[in-house]
Amino acid sequence: WLNVTGGFSSSTATNSYFSGIIMDVTEQKQNDLRRSKFIGMVSHELKTPLTALKAYVQMLNNWAKKQKDNFTIGALSKVDKQVKKMLNMINSLLNLSGAEAGKIHLKKEEFRLDVLINEVVEETLFITSTHHIVTSPCDSVTINADREKIEQVLVNLLSNAAKYSDKTAEIEIGCTVRGDNVEVSVRDQGLGIAPADIQKLFLPHYRVESKETEKIAGFGIGLYLCAEIINRHHGKIWAESEPGKGSTFKFTLPVG
Ligand code: ADP
């Protein structure tokens, strides 16, 4: 739209110049939609065999436990970890294509947020293994929300806290009820984020450019998705940080 206005403001603009810009924008939008649809289809196709793989790993694990076969149990735990990582990435891509097409469908249900937090912490401890995650006392609280998507937000925030911190540093997660809302916070003692970057973290594909972050893999879509999901639930999400001292990501959701 800025381009279009620019065309008009130069008083010599002709109709053909004007229509040329409109076509560019439309074509760009169609390409974005096609790309988004393609990502959605591929991720969906990948999710099915991976989900089956996860189930077989679990089945084999049960069998190995009965046999008390520690070698197989150890190997399966490593496979399970990688499968879970891939499923997280695929879920992010699926959500991205949905968000870009302007449709995040919420399947709302009532559930205990504090229970979900404990489950996600256990899972993340398993996947990132070397980090100490501490849960500060969580208020017991029931919310009406899309459980899978809120789980995705928690997984994203916790894995970022792990990704952008030292291997042994502590990560703390807590939830507190404040009036009609519950506030969840994930605090790390990692790299921290400069004030100029904090404003842009939740934009799609935004990654902080620094010597430290360039060694850490990522697509820059996790926080964008967190923001889309929390906004769709009428909540708020933000970050507080000091470079070198760590970051705290917080979000709120309506209670009940
Ligand atoms: P990704 O981690 O895949 O790059 P995200 O959207 O999750 O994408 O995060 C965007 C950027 O925000 C990251 O590239 C990183 O620079 C910064 N960031 C996110 N979480 C943290 C954190 N806990 N500590 C420091 N920087 C972070």
Automatic annotation (TrEMBL):
Reaction(s) catalysed by this chain's protein: ATP + protein L-histidine = ADP + protein N-phospho-L-histidine
GO cellular component, one term: plasma membrane
GO biological process: one example: cellular response to phosphate starvation
EC class (word): transferase
Gene Ontology molecular-function annotations: phosphoprotein phosphatase activity; phosphorelay sensor kinase activity
Keywords from the UniProt entry: Kinase, Phosphoprotein, Transferase, Two-component regulatory system
Domain Histidine kinase: from-to ranges: 41-256
Highest taxon of source: Bacteria
EC number: 2.7.13.3
Protein's name in the database: histidine kinase
Organism: Mucilaginibacter paludis DSM 18603
Residues of the full protein shown: 115 to 370 of 370
